[in-house]
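Ticket #4471: structure output looks truncated?

Reporter: J.K.
Steps to reproduce: submitted the chain below (227 residues) through the standard prediction queue, then opened the result file.
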Amino acid sequence: MAAKTRPKNATRPSGSKQGRRTQVKPTRGRDIPLLPIAVGGILLALVIGLIIYVVANNKPTPGPTTVAGIPCDSLEHTQVHYHAALQVMYQGNVVDLPDNIGIMTDSSGNATCFYWLHVHANDKNVIHIESPASQTFTLGQFIAIWANWAKLNGDAVPSLDSTHVTTIALTPGQALATYIDLQDGKGPQLFTGDPNSIVLKSHEVITLEITPPQVPTPPAFTFPSGE
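Returned output as attached by the reporter:
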């Protein structure tokens, strides 16, 4: 028997489970815009860097600390105000103290605070003792304030011990001779104790002499007029 053939235009029987196949078109991968991402990353990095810079530069600078029990106050006190002199002698000559010891300044050179023991530039070698109440102050406290002030200003740091007289280092053949003149008519008197313990008094003249050579009598000191 000859095989039966279905006409080309024959329809599928109704109810047939086999439907028309949907043709799936292949899709191309989307191109990622790299330039905007790169620009955005750079801008984000710049913003983060700016924030870090602003935060770092706006941190409050730590204020001057209390040194040897003495704070640094915004104004000079007048309740207690007197002066003592400090002479450092090296190779037979007086070595002036640095100006403005104990006076903290800003970047413009304006005073921001004063330790109760300080030195003004126009009063060479004069220690101003200015505190809100009467109390005992020593040369050692002044040296401590000087050391702290010097560190903050990048200057030579002083000490007063067996090997140093302020900022001068003693050689093996040198020694310290300390004199105190209370301006009571007795003249300079040799002091054999620890010079750090010397109590600062009104119009007292303390001489720290590095020997040799040893000057028999330390030079007289004249306080500025009105002091």
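Triage note (M.O.): checked the attachment and the full token line is present. The chain has two helices and 13 strands.
Status: closed, working as intended.
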